[in-house]
Write a sequence for this structure.
């Protein structure tokens, strides 16, 4: 289908299955609120180190309100304006540099990422050798490894990495994980580590966050029922990319990442009668609504929501902004 229909041509029918939960998690919601409240309280500009969350729509919306996004603090002039750290977390040298330059900074790090940081520091104090399961180059991984001295954390990305890892101290070996990984892939890596090192210490509470787990479980439920799965999210969003992978493995004939309605691959879904839609934890619901509207313009649709979990998590805002929330 080319996306155009004749005025009197009858529409084909299409079932749309919406995964729930989907979209914004509590950590993303908190981070976006921090930027918006800082703009309200202090006025533009405010500076944000790295994308506050990995979603172009969200970032562009905040830019229009006066947020200035930078990758490093040295891009920010001497200023009294607030400087905000993204939800992914930062290495310790970042707040240290902010303090050296007398910046007023607000930390929008997701509390569940901060939990992993605290965990890493505790293990380091116990003189444990630490493995971090995660993706090289991701801001969260850079931030977590940056809590400790260089060399204190070994990154393991794959089952093969786990098979080939050689510890220097098997007596005190521990692992932590990035919060936005594939649950199934991580379990496979952990199984290898546990087989090779039965005494390895695991996190007291799962590091992969509730929102990542819930969204992947919801995708598994709808993927087995639909021809095509659309994941609304950004290419640099780890949790969104994992949803595509989960959808493929769970049985969707086609699983595609789209950033917005303009990216719907109409030519690929011709003949499909059932479409699944979900959204990564940093994708706002307005993008899902726009995609549904695009389908309704072209098809006679029925929309059903498949719910696998209910979320009611909320995180406190920084003290400086709490009175204004």
């Amino acid at each position: 289908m080319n996306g155009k229909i004749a005025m009197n041509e009858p529409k084909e029918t299409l079932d749309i299955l919406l995964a729930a939960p989907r979209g914004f998690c509590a950590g993303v919601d908190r981070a976006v609120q921090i930027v918006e409240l800082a703009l309200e309280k202090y006025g533009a500009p405010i500076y944000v180190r790295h994308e506050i969350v990995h979603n172009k729509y969200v970032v562009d919306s905040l830019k229009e309100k006066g947020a200035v996004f930078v990758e490093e603090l040295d891009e920010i002039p001497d200023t009294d304006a607030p400087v905000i750290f993204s939800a992914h977390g930062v290495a310790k040298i970042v707040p240290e540099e902010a303090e050296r330059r007398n910046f007023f900074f607000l930390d929008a790090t997701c509390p569940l990422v901060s939990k992993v940081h605290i965990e890493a520091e505790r293990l380091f104090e116990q003189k444990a050798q630490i493995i971090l399961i995660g993706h090289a180059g991701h801001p969260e991984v850079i931030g977590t490894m940056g809590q400790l001295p260089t060399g204190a954390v070994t990154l393991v990305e794959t089952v093969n990495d786990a098979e080939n890892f050689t510890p220097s101290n098997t007596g005190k070996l521990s692992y932590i994980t990035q919060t936005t990984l594939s649950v199934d892939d991580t379990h496979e890596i952990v199984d290898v580590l546990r087989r090779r090192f039965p005494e390895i210490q695991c996190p007291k509470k799962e590091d992969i966050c509730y929102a990542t787990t819930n969204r992947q479980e919801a995708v598994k439920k709808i993927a087995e029922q639909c021809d095509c799965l659309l994941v609304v999210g950004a290419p640099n969003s780890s949790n969104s990319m994992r949803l595509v992978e989960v959808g493929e493995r769970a049985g969707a004939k086609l699983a595609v990442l789209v950033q917005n309605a303009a990216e719907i691959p109409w030519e690929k879904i011709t003949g499909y009668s059932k479409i699944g839609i979900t959204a990564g934890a940093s994708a706002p619901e307005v993008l899902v609504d726009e995609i549904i509207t695009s389908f309704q313009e072209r098809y006679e649709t029925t929309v059903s929501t498949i719910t696998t979990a209910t979320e009611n998590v909320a995180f406190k805002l920084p003290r400086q902004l709490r009175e204004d929330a």
About this structure: The chain has three domains: 12-24+210-307, 26-110, 112-196.
